[in-house]
Prior knowledge:
Elements lengths: L1 H21 E4 L3 E7 L2 E6 L2 E4 L5 E7 L2 E12 L5 E12 L2 H6 L4 H18 L3 H6 L1 H16 L4 E12 L2 H73 L2 H16 L10 H16 L28
Antiparallel strand pairs: 1-4, 2-3, 2-5, 6-7, 7-8
Amino acid sequence: MPFAGTALVIIGVFLLIMLLLSVKVIRPYQKGLVERLGKFNRILEPGIHFIIPFMERVKVVDMREHVVDVPPQEVICKDNVVVTVDAIVYYQILDPVKAVYNVSDFLMAIIKLAQTNLRAIIGEMELDETLSGRDIINAKLREELDKITDRWGVKITRVEIQRIDPPKDIQDAMAKQMTAEREKRAMILLAEGKKEAAIKEAEGQKQAAILKAEGEKQRQILVAEGQAEAIRKVLEALKMADEKYLTLQYIEKMPELAKYGNLIVPYDTEALIGLLRILQKVKDAPIPEPPKGDSERAVPQEEGSSLTPEKT
Length: 312
């Protein structure tokens, strides 16, 4: 009886171990490759699976995107300049069967393949092209790697060149060249600034001269219009004035003009003589007596008011 109990316990433990060994859990980002008796049998998707213990074995493959660092290496450019280059490669396994069974160590294979292709790509480029063409190198290297890793079930998603370091003497020469370029650019910008300032100043002076000329033009126009208006009004007044009145004004101005020793020549001798005769008649004519009845209402006349024009 004790022997039977011990056997049952052993059998129970054996079954429990077998149960634990038969359960396999695949994570969401994994896939499982089941080998039965040394031969590929099937692929396990994420979830819980049961296998035959001791007959089947599971290889778990991570399907997430990974990054691998390509160690620095010295590469000779087309113009015989040695540069130190390193890079990083992003990859993702698309086919776990090919990644496991078509290459023994695809990670090391990717690194060696990247170094080889870097030497080939940079060897066809000069130093200046290498320093300024990182995007071109990245694209070519990713294309070359992707062609080869496709049969491994691996997709190269991205390649990034981290650094391209030329020798120390070339770095010093490049630093001096960059300093000279910056100084040249600063001098050009300074000269352009002075040129722009001179142009702006000249344009300002031009605008000021134009505005001043236009102001002077407007002033002269206004003065001329004022003079024309004055002349027009004088001419209108002269048209309305009596010829005799004008002759009288002419005679009154003659003494004033004679003060400065001017020689005065009458412009219309006949009119002047006629006016003098009229004035002589007015002066010799007797002053009429006012009516007696009206003498009290008569208003005293001022001196000179007796120069009543003769009726003609």
